[in-house]
Write a structure and sequence with these properties.
transmembrane, globular, mainly alpha
């Protein structure tokens, strides 16, 4: 893609998108290192990074399978995590392109590309921001996974330097602002308690699914 195509976005937006892609790349290094250290051959995290292109689901998959869980439970958990893409698709339906291009446009849809896309003032800028961020992450993520897998071969214990905690820490940082509201805090805390409580009784990977029961802890009051 030529630089002129994205020039209407302005340098500040392009710089912000680049920094987000770079941050995702750092997380990808953690993911690649964890996958290789967990006994997965390189092609597994690499193919997931290209075909799935959803960091949370990929981390969850290798964590569940690496912990002895069923691949089917891991896939189900990943689908649930990515259920948020349904409303995302509605929000960016006019940005993903048409006909065969829409398949690629949907594939590069993620939290970051959606945020940058819908936050621009005009349709032209929304579309270009969406595609620049989505394509950037689609490039940065697999490359960083390969780099992480290579680095992971030389690290005796990735837990000793905290690489295993990078992604959970990022997720916690993202959800903390939302936890200020009781409407979010109550279901989240309930789901966490349920998940921890069932750990001794269900196979690996299933506690994540049980945590969804926390959503029942809040009922709309009329």
């Amino acid at each position: 893609m030529q630089a002129r195509f994205f020039s209407p976005l302005g340098k500040d937006v392009v710089k912000a998108i680049f920094l987000v892609c770079l941050a995702d790349g750092l997380v990808g290094i953690s993911y690649g290192s964890l996958a290789v250290a967990g006994g997965f051959p390189l092609w597994v995290p690499l193919m997931l990074s290209i075909l799935v292109l959803a960091g949370a689901s990929e981390f969850l998959f290798i964590a569940i399978v690496g912990g002895g869980g069923s691949p089917f439970a891991a896939a189900a958990a990943g689908l649930l995590v990515n259920a948020r893409h349904l409303p995302f698709g509605i929000a960016v339906k006019d940005l993903v392109g048409s006909k065969s291009l829409s398949w690629l446009g949907c594939h590069i849809m993620n939290d970051e590309s959606v945020v940058f896309g819908i936050s621009q003032p005009t349709h032209e800028k929304r579309k270009k921001a969406y595609w620049l961020c989505g394509a950037g992450i689609a490039l940065f993520w697999p490359v960083s996974v390969i780099a992480g897998a290579y680095i992971g071969q030389f690290i005796p214990d990735i837990k000793a330097i905290g690489l295993d905690a990078v992604f959970p820490a990022i997720l916690l940082a993202l959800i903390f602002p939302a936890l200020r509201k009781r409407r979010t805090l109550i279901p989240a805390a309930s789901g966490a308690l349920i998940s921890v409580a069932v750990v001794p009784f269900v196979p690996a990977g299933m506690p994540v699914l049980f945590s969804l029961l926390g959503l029942l802890a809040w009922r709309n009051k009329k």
